[in-house]
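Ligand-bound model needed. zinc ion.
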Amino acid sequence: MEPIMDKAVKILSKYPLCCTCLGRLFAGLGRGIGNRLRGKSIKALLTMLADAAIREGDQSAYEVVKILARSGWGPAQQIAAAQGLEYEKKDCILCLNKLTDENIENIAKKAAEAALRYEFKTFLVGAKIPRFIKIIEENLFSEYSLTYAESISKDIDREVGKKLEEYLGREVDFNYPELLVIVDIFTGHVETRPSPLFIKGRYLKHEAGIPQTPWLCRNCWGAGCPKCDFKGREYDHSVSEFISMPAVKLSGAIDYVFHAAGREDLDAFVEGEGRPFIVELREPRRRVIDFEEYSKLVDRYSSGKVEVKDLSYASRSEVRLLKTYLEKARKKYLAVVTFESPINDSVIKELETYFTNRVIEQQTPTRVLSRRADKIRRKNVYRLSVNKIDNYTLSFEILADAGLYIKELIHGDSGRTRPSVSNFVGTSPKEIKLTVLEIREDRLQST
Ligand SMILES: [Zn+2]
Ligand SMILES: [Zn+2]
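Prediction:
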């Protein structure tokens, strides 16, 4: 390896650098020194070597003195003045002379002030660096094969991070920080971004006619028109809003995203175990939620139509799980069906046997064809038990793969779902009341 001193002179002759930025080019060498001291040491030794050479009459050392003086190094400027050497003072090309203790302290103070508007236990600092400086840095690193160099952003992250830990009494977390602090030492600008807060639970829906997510008016798509009474939507409320708005209020978030394991029909109920959901709260000011208060708020806000339970905090990875989870999940439904003609008692027993562990071939239902691709799905019904309510009305408890359209399983969708209950009993349903009873947590559980 080329000696550090030779390399430093070559670099400084082309790129004026302050002590910190010069030292950072050798950051991997020696522990517990710090980049500024590294740079200072190099410049101090170069000054001493040049001074000795000049005293011995070696005029070539003037060049080194000028290079050092140009980069703002005081001791070299003194020699230059004594020797009558001329040079043009230049700002550090990497930090524009901004990387000073004072600037680091000031921006850390500003960041601490901004951070304290939020509730958080851990944080992480991210430095914003102008693009042109990153390019200069990349060129410098490769031009001189600086394998021990550290980037300026890493340097700022660490230095501001240390100060912030001191001011806030809280710790840096590289993996899951609750608050991201973005500092721009070049403009003095500070930005704070709280990471999202995730709350998971299960919801019950006690009333029909509420879509899971808001449905925009199909005429104006949200703009508002006479058809929708200028509301821009088909239904006033949605499950996602009933659940999310109280969480937004409690956390002081600016926005939310509602995630659920699948969705039920507009007019289906959700009872029993409930449907798993996660509310993602964007930029929350508060991260400690009183779950009891939250569930009461949902109850009040929805006038008892929607209920949340089994509440706890969740992570981003659980959102992904929630989405894949449904693929293999099984669901239990309660369907109360009134048929056109009376059902013979003997058929009821046969129904149960026939539909237990039965594969259903289901072509995309006509009612969702506008939104879903037309294809055939094969789903299982694991168990179907029937209770007779009267001669026309049966109540079905159905355990099936998630993704099987239950109403179509019953009415057959003009032969698009095969086999179907309607086909089996030989009469069509007049009315189907559907409730989701349970969504199984354990996807491997056998029944
Ligand atoms: Zn610098
Ligand atoms: Zn409209």
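Residues 217, 219-220, 224-225, 227-228, 232 surround zinc ion (ligand 2) (CB under 6 Å).
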